[in-house]
Amino acid sequence: MSAQQLFVTVFPTAEVQALQWWLVIDGELQAKGCDADPLLAAGLKLPSVENDPVTHIALMPSALGVVRWHEPLDDLTDQQLLAAARLAVQENSLDLENLHIASVLDGSGQAATVSVGKDVMAGGLLQLNALGIDPDAIIPAGWLVAPQEDGFVEADFGFEAVLRGEQLIAPDEPSLRAHLIGDSKVAVLSEASVDSALAGAADNSALNLRSGAFAKKVDKYMTVQQKRTLGWLAAAVVIISLLIPVVQLIKSHWAASDAEAAALAAAEPVIGSVDTVEAADKSLNDRLISENRGNIAFSVPASALFSALQQSQAVSVDRISYRKDGTVSATLSAVRNEDINPVLIAIQKSGFVITANPRQDATGSAKADVTVRAP
Q1: Statement to judge: residues 330 and 312 lie in one domain
Q2: Closest residue by Cα to residue 160 from 75, 65, 52
Q3: Which candidate in 53, 55, 79, 319 could, as Cys together with 331 as Cys, close a disulfide (CB 3.0–4.6 Å)?
Q4: 191 neighbors 154 (Cβ within 8 angstroms)
């Protein structure tokens, strides 16, 4: 299994600058630095289908991303609390059209927001994309630092020193410290503690500025595993498509074999033992012919002929004869050939085999010499 890799950088805020970066593998900080090309300096490849996935988090300086906590309101759902917090930020903004806001409920259930200019977001993302980086999350740097109940915490990330309180994240500027915290006690985080906080950035990224219009686009390419799975599915579809007619053919063959066996068993008491259905059919036909029975009996084709004649009053029978093979011969008469045609069609629709030779007699009447035989 490939190692889980986390790459943390500072969110760029100037046209040209070296970016601080931290490389975390399996939860342990492996390397850090400050370079114009962080991916190259960290020894990482550009994201692609073949490369191992890397989670990227960008840290928004607190001087640009303003974090606020909002008074809780009764009888509101979580979503309503977050919406009310965003509205409060908008009401206090002097540049509403250029404002991007993210919100989340903290561990105590209180709504927290971070707001930053849309131009800052757009420009920083453009610079990161130029370096081959498309961050999964953009979070305030101070959000990584756990607050203390009885005071404040100072954390130096290198690009910025941050003051963190239970409901405070702000730049640690000497001119602002007395105004923000007065004489409150401040605990300074060690470099190792700051590195540990950075290593856990992936688990502490709920307050994420990559939302709304700046949400990360879903990659449209497929991974190698997805391509392999799709290939197996396609092969399975082809195999199943081929197996369906094969199975149906086998079932039909079995059904036909069962039907033939049943037919031979039914015919055996009448014609004796035979090997095939064709032989049984021939033996049965020969017996019917010898006994003048079955479909070759005179009544069968003759009935079809006279039933058809009843449908046309203009046609009569001049002559009729019968042969032992079951064929009825007849001469039909009518004023016109068009009167005889419906009779012939009716016989054919009944399933009988017919032949017809039209002619005219000396008086000009239409005649047709026909044969009718059961199929």
Answers
A1: yes
A2: 65
A3: 319
A4: no
Provide, for the chain, the percentages of residues in helix, strand and coil under a 3-state DSSP scheme, each rounded to the nearest 5: 40, 25, 35
Straight-line distance from the first to the last Cα atom of the chain, in angstroms, rounded to the nearest whole number? 74
Count the domains in the chain: 3
pLDDT at 303: 81
The CATH code of the domain that includes 359 is 3.30.1360.100
Identify the CATH number of the domain in which residue 157 sits.
3.30.420.380
Contact 49, 122 (CB under 8 A): no
Are 234 and 358 in the same domain?
no
Spatial CB neighbours of 216, under 8 Å, sequence gap ≥ 6: 134, 135, 136, 210
**Tokens found for residue 42:** 């960290």
Residues 6+ apart with CB under 8 A from 156: 162, 188, 189, 191, 194
d(CA 105, CA 110): 5
Are the C-beta atoms of 67 and 103 separated by less than 8 Å? no
DSSP 158-204: SS-EEEEETTEEEE--HHHHHHHHTT--EEEPPHHHHHHHHHTGGGS
Identify the domain boundary among 184, 218, 252.
218
The answer to whether the CB of 329 falls within 8 A of the CB of 370 is yes
Q: Are residues 125 and 205 in the same domain?
A: yes
75 torsion bin: left (phi>0), alpha (psi -120 to 50), beta (else)? left
Q: Which two tokens stand for residue 211?
A: 């939302």
> Which one-letter DSSP state was computed for residue 131?
T
Q: Which two tokens stand for residue 29?
A: 């900080």
pLDDT tens string 52-104: 688 999 999 998 999 999 888 777 888 888 898 899 888 888 888 899 999 99
Pick out the chain residues at pLDDT < 50.
1-2
Q: Are residues 181 and 230 in the same domain?
A: no
DSSP helix/strand/coil, 332 = strand
Residue positions counted in the chain:
375
pLDDT at position 286: 65
